[in-house]
Amino acid sequence: MISLTVNGKKYQVDAAPDSKLLWVLREQLGLTGTKFGCGEGMCGACTVLVDGKARRSCVTPVSAVKGKKVVTIEGLPESHPLKLAWIAEQVPQCGYCQPGQIMQAAALLNEHPKPTESEIDSAMSGCLCRCGTYQRVKIAINRAAGKGKKP
Amino acid sequence: MRYLSAGQDRYQPCCRKGEEAMSPKMSRREFLQHTLTGTGIAVAVTMTPLGFRVFSAADAAAGDFNPSVWLTIAPNETVTVLVAKSEMGQGVSTSLPMLVADELEANWESIKFVFAPADDKFRDPVWGTQATGGSTSIRHLYEPLRLAGAAAREMLIAAAAREWKVAADECVAANGLVRHKRKLKSLSFGQLTSLVAGIEPPAKPKLKSPQEFRLIGKAIPRLDVPEKVSGAAIFGLDVKVPGMLIAAVAHSPLIGASPASFNKGAALKIKGVRHVISLQKGVAVCADSFPAARKGVDSLKATWEGGDRTLDNASLYARFAKALNEPGIKAKEIGNTATAMSSAAKKLEATFSLPYLAHATMEPMNCTAHITASRCEVWAPTQNQTGVKALAEKISGLPADKVFVNTTYLGGGFGRRFETDVVEEALHLAKVTGKPVKVIWTREDDFRNDFYRPMNLSRVAASLDAQGKISGWEHKVVCPSIFARVFPDTMKFGVDQAAVEGVANLDYEVPNLDVNYVRIDTPVPVGFWRSVGSSHNAFVVETMMDELARLAGSDPVEFRLAHLGGNPNAYAVVKTASMKAGWGKPLAAGKGRGFAFHRSFDTNVAMVAEVEVDRKSGVIKVSRVVCAVDCGQVVNPDIVKSQIEGAVCFGLSAALNERVEIAKGGVVSGNFSNYDLLRMNEAPKIEVHLVKGQEKPGGIGEPGVPPIAPAVANAVFAATGVRFRELPLAPKTVLKALKKS
Description:
Shape of chain B: globular
Protein name (chain A): (2Fe-2S)-binding protein
CATH architecture of the largest domain in chain B: 2-Layer Sandwich
Distance between the termini of chain B: 69 Å
Largest sheet of chain A: 5 strands, mixed
Helix content of chain A: 25-40%
GO molecular function, one term (chain B): oxidoreductase activity
Largest interface: A-B, 56 and 60 residues
Protein name (chain B): Xanthine dehydrogenase family protein molybdopterin-binding subunit
CATH topology of the largest domain in chain B: Aldehyde Oxidoreductase, domain 4
Pfam family, one (chain B): MoCoBD_2
Strand content of chain A: 5-15%
Number of domains of chain B: 3
Low-confidence stretches of chain B: 1-39, 47-53, 55-68
Shape of chain A: globular
Strand content of chain B: 15-25%
Radius of gyration of chain A: 15 Å
InterPro entries (chain B): Ald_Oxase/Xan_DH_a/b, AldOxase/xan_DH_MoCoBD1, AldOxase/xan_DH_MoCoBD2, AldOxase/xan_DH_Mopterin-bd_sf, N-heterocyclic_Hydroxylase, OxRdtase_Mopterin-bd_su_IorB
Largest sheet of chain B: 7 strands, mixed
CATH class of the largest domain in chain B: Alpha Beta
Order of helices and strands of chain A: EEHEEEHHHH
CATH superfamily of the largest domain in chain B: Aldehyde oxidase/xanthine dehydrogenase, molybdopterin binding domain
Number of helices of chain A: 5
Number of helices of chain B: 21
Low-confidence stretches of chain A: none
Structural class of chain B: alpha+beta
Oligomer: heterodimer
Mean pLDDT of chain B: 91
């Protein structure tokens, strides 16, 4: 049994230590907002916060988050500036990558509350969006950071 | 038009109860019963050879109608629109309800949507099949959905008028209420649901004029966005059925191979593995969890038979190149190109090459299925409900009324989810195990078992007359056929319509045109990929136009305008894009602007791309893309803009990066490490300008893709003087060409 703290709640899960956090979240905790995209940490769809930092849950062993605070898309409050900005800017198309984009953006704002264009680019370029919502993702991050609508 | 049975205020996705009430086989007596006892209202519109009409009680009794569109109004005021198209990001779960709500005069806040089950009633009125593709959702449903809304509105007004004992034309519907024009009386739609019994459906509901639209044309926020932001949206991968097993599949690394041997015992020893089942194209491991299923697959040590180990990019190219010398089948002939060529002032011949491409939807292929002795249910992110249902009936052996198909949100479609290969796997496993099974493909499965955008080789010879206008255009397309496999009936004289689209119907005025199609069959499976044939033909035609403009000594935009004189809508789009982009204005040294125009799916799109080429690395940076779009009546301008923004990125990704690597008989590209997609740091600033021109609605999901690649390639020429007739414009390719120049 491994003990985990996810979205402020403590869980005991029956999983091998090398089990990837993504599948524990999705299959054992029922938190399906975190998505499977590539299994190699290449696309960012599985991004969650671990102690406030962005982590690719598809390559993170569950043992590595023991004693740490995991936050998934479901744990980010509905009133979070990023979620509100995402709705205001109508970012999602198919929507599949968006939880990962939002969690990555949350980590970015934790580190840089007023990110520059290049800080946004470098933080967000690990998150693929096949629908091509990048421009709106950028505008939404700036909006959430209180930097107005323009990218 | 008719009413639903009492108490049906909530649509059930599987339509079990509703299914009986809505069966086309309903008797007249049953129909009248529903009509009399209804507390809700449902509206359907049928497609007949003569056009659309609202169906009546008599039709229902005859049982020969085929309704395509539904809405329900519940006593609690909720208006539920059944969306018979798949939501894959293009916004149908908002734009289609907008069509209904506008004519209905509903209160938008009370609108909900549900995805329609797979059912004959929801077949596309034009295609006769329930599927999403070809940028047709608005084009095919613009009128039927509005008629459904208008018919319901007229019935609600008639019910109120009867209740108040006044003439119907003294009543008006607005914002979810019917009110009397003079008396201070009103009834809500919800209240009226109990008063509509016995009201005859209007034979010809009156549609609004565009000036009267209240919702259509407005940037209404999408209905699907809140749950896509909260993380609650259910995609295929998120489906949970009690007791379900998770399956992973060992697929052959070779195209066209099947399993020869595998170690079933080793897989069954893995904790959580329940079944190992051989499939036609692979071996499936069903387990309690996805990691367990994957461990099982890894321990199978499967061997394969079949396939062709000599298959690779180079051998495929050689086959295409050889086919380019075959005469092909005539797809279009206007005038006499030979005469035009012999009297030409100037001539140009060029060959173009485009690679196989993968769809790479962010949600990997998956499907959940459950088959029991009396029931088959499928949960799939699919673009092809009719295909899924047919497959489910075939594999389960159950009749249509025992088979239920639920469409989830699609994590990207782009044509890939029209195919039903993963659905077939899920159904087979559900049948063998008797348990609900969710099949999940890995990214590698997804890349290596795609139905790829066909590779394409094209040769064009064109002539200019003494005035610098195009006098002749000979175009040969070597391309595998998608339609021959998917819709063989549409092959006219052996021509695949997709392979020559945008060429056989060339938008430019060319007096002598000759288009030939050479079909080439290879073991590499091909399928629909966002914008299909236009994805390659626009590159060929628009690069050629740029080259011809320069040969004629003309400006590329002026040259296009000179060949679009008889097409004011196309002319306006070209003009708008060039003006908004500041075409002709000076740019910083090393930068270039490129232009492209293409009409596809009934929509005109023009683009100007601004690029900068790093001569040291060969990296092309596209900084700005200005788009002008005329898709006729716009339903939701913000969704239209987002579709174009997305299409620019999708097309740019292919133009700059994408190529499926085939070696030793299989697809090497397996993950984003060797098939990377456009990322945020490469995404340009995109401006979309909507142009009012044509009246009829055009498609919007795909038409933004074709122009971007040629716009960029033409901009690279403007910046460097180097012409590219091959995609992708990968840094290595660019560097090599720059060095040569």
